[in-house]
Amino acid sequence: MIFNIQRYSTHDGPGIRTVVFLKGCSLGCRWCQNPESRSRQKDLLYDARLCLAECDLCQQAAPAVIQKTLNGLIILREKIEPDHIAALENCCPTLALTVCGEEKDAAEIMAVVRRDRAFYQRSQGGVTLSGGEPFMNPQLAATLFRQCQQEGIHTAVETCLHVPWRYVEPSLPYIDLFLADLKHVDERTFKQWTDGSAKRVLGNLRRLAAAGKNITIRVPLIPEFNANPGAVTDIVNFAADELGVKEIHFLPYHTLGMNKYALLHQPYLAPDKPLDCPALLTFAEAYAKQKGLTATLRG
Questions:
Q1: Structural fold of domain 43-100
Q2: Backbone phi, psi, residue 76, to 5°
Q3: What is the mean pLDDT of residues 69-93?
Q4: Average pLDDT, whole number, for the chain?
Q5: In 3D, which of 94, 81, 6, 13 has the Cα closest to residue 47?
Q6: What per-residue confidence (pLDDT) applies to 298?
Q7: How confident is the model over 201-219, as pLDDT tens digits?
Q8: What CATH number belongs to 2-38+103-297?
Q9: Domain residue spans in the chain?
Q10: Which of 190, 235, 244, 275 is the most exposed place for a label (fewest CB within 10 A)?
């Protein structure tokens, strides 16, 4: 199950890349900018701003879960079944109601990937699997990475590494670059903000480092969570001293994905304003460089 294939990307690894976004994630980060990626199933998104009052095509297609009112739609999400989703796909003429998620096998995805082989070769680019969490689909991930390697295409993965190691291991020989999130090293804080285990992430990072893999650490800087000198120091120390990585990216928090929560009828529990702390960014970059890391700030 994927939710996008983005061609001509320049922000998800070296060169020009094709990014394949897989659905499914084992974390529940409050600030997640792709909440539609969390579920491994198809999701129904509704934008009331685009809804036509005189139209009832969606209600006709799935009357058991769609109710039409003067103010728009009421979607009985707890009753949605796969057959309702199928009936609603491509139903709405204004795209007020859309379905996120598409089933594709490795052959279909590779057919898209191969279209841009010339761009990969000229720019030293390649393919990046993203998500969600790509390793939630371990068999598909390993198949795609292996086929790319066999065809001389550079491979990268954007991962939170919050999965059992056995999900990562089949792909290990075929991945050139890990773009790995390191959100926090404190177990209690990590659990509170992500519903996950920092110990699992740190353990997987140690295994990657021991395997000699090329790792770039990425740190989303989130107000009230880790956007403070103490948390940044701990993260950088772990990356430099325990992992021995050479590169770290700091990603200041933004709220560009906030509207997606409304489309999914989900609460947004993260801060409602972007990170505005130039002093922290200066400190993070300087401390990382002090520890021998190449530090990059990414918007």
A1: Alpha-Beta Plaits (3.30.70)
A2: -85, 80
A3: 91
A4: 95
A5: 94
A6: 82
A7: 999 999 999 999 999 999 9
A8: 3.20.20.70
A9: 2-38+103-297, 43-100
A10: 244
24-49: pLDDT as tens digits: 999 999 999 999 999 999 999 999 99
pLDDT of residue 299: 66
Other CB atoms within 10 Å distance of the CB of residue 278: 9
